[in-house]
Amino acid sequence: MRLHPTLALCAVAWSSTQVWARDDPSRDQVQILTEKAQEYMAAKDYGAAYDSFQEALNVDPDNYMTYFYRAAAYLRERRTTAALVDLDQALKRKQDFEPALRQRAKLLNKRGAFKAARDDWETLEAMGGQVQETAQQGLDKVNQAERAYQQAQQARDDQKYAECVQFATAALKTASEMVNLYQLRGDCQRSARDIHQAVADYGRAIRLDPTQLDIQLQVAQLRFYVLNQQDEALAAVKECLRSDPEHKPCSKAFKRFKKIKKAVKEIETDASKKKFNTAAKKLTAFHQPAKTSDDGAPPQGLIQEVEEETVTLYRDWDLGDPQLGSAGTTNEATETLVVPELVADLYHKSCQYFAGFKKHQYGIEWCDKAL
């Protein structure tokens, strides 16, 4: 039977626990509780395992092995932060405890904590013996990842976005849980006009650190206006508000998204009942004869409101001029189009609805923009 990697790591350290009872009979209770916790781990009953580990620590708060085993349990649930805390506690009590030092170095590599990881690998290397080769390999990886991260940052500053993505991807092979690295690659993909991949990387950053509320808001706006993924956008701002119910930008975005989605639903309902005139008016503020508002400006329908918001979004997130009605914006360096899908969908609906009640002459503008 193959052991899970974290359980295998525990097995490596297990031999050091066998002296407990011989050296100090009072530690029998700690050993029993630790063994019980590992049985719970094997059964994937992590809550019970944590309770047993805590009982063991209550008996002996300075037992480094208990911290080490609980760190392994946290890793089974991918709770890296909690695992690092317990590994720190284990090493505080036994600085030369090689299994904990090696595991912490690997986790620091993943986190992109390059200096701290390098310190651990160098400590392991100085121990000599069988661990020396592993430590040298770890040092090589952390140095390569740090160099690639720095190259990605420089490429971003030089506006060489394809190179930035390439270097960031190389760094992520080692620093696979580095929030700043995913955000950097997302920024470069966004600047290269690859919005789908940018949103994917921002999403990875958020999963690693849900407190990144500004990124959550950015993802929500890109999903809503650029990708026309309304449900996903609403889910993103809801997550933001779960983290901080008082977050005003996310609250404002949530209310606005809901209002637009509701308006689109009502328009689609009108169209399904063949009330094309009503649907077109709500979308475009079309009136015959033409009307103006009190200040002399033409009235705004949903399209005009969303157009204004889209222009603001493109400016704020450095997506260029959306050139509404001309199939998006072209990046001179990449010749890639960024189509604001929400507005494009509303153009298409307007074209259909004017055709639906035989006002082709008024629908031409929207049909042209849809194309």
From TrEMBL:
<dbReference type="InterPro" id="IPR011990">
    <property type="entry name" value="TPR-like_helical_dom_sf"/>
</dbReference>
<dbReference type="InterPro" id="IPR051727">
    <property type="entry name" value="DnaJ_C3_Co-chaperones"/>
</dbReference>
<dbReference type="InterPro" id="IPR019734">
    <property type="entry name" value="TPR_rpt"/>
</dbReference>
<keyword id="KW-0732">Signal</keyword>
<feature type="coiled-coil region">
    <location>
        <begin position="135"/>
        <end position="162"/>
    </location>
</feature>
<feature type="signal peptide">
    <location>
        <begin position="1"/>
        <end position="21"/>
    </location>
</feature>
<protein>
    <submittedName>
        <fullName>Uncharacterized protein</fullName>
    </submittedName>
</protein>
<feature type="repeat" description="TPR">
    <location>
        <begin position="179"/>
        <end position="212"/>
    </location>
</feature>
<feature type="repeat" description="TPR">
    <location>
        <begin position="30"/>
        <end position="63"/>
    </location>
</feature>
<dbReference type="Pfam" id="PF13181">
    <property type="entry name" value="TPR_8"/>
</dbReference>
<dbReference type="GO" id="GO:0051087">
    <property type="term" value="F:protein-folding chaperone binding"/>
</dbReference>
<keyword id="KW-0802">TPR repeat</keyword>
<keyword id="KW-0175">Coiled coil</keyword>
<dbReference type="GO" id="GO:0005783">
    <property type="term" value="C:endoplasmic reticulum"/>
</dbReference>
<dbReference type="GO" id="GO:0034975">
    <property type="term" value="P:protein folding in endoplasmic reticulum"/>
</dbReference>
<dbReference type="GO" id="GO:0051787">
    <property type="term" value="F:misfolded protein binding"/>
</dbReference>
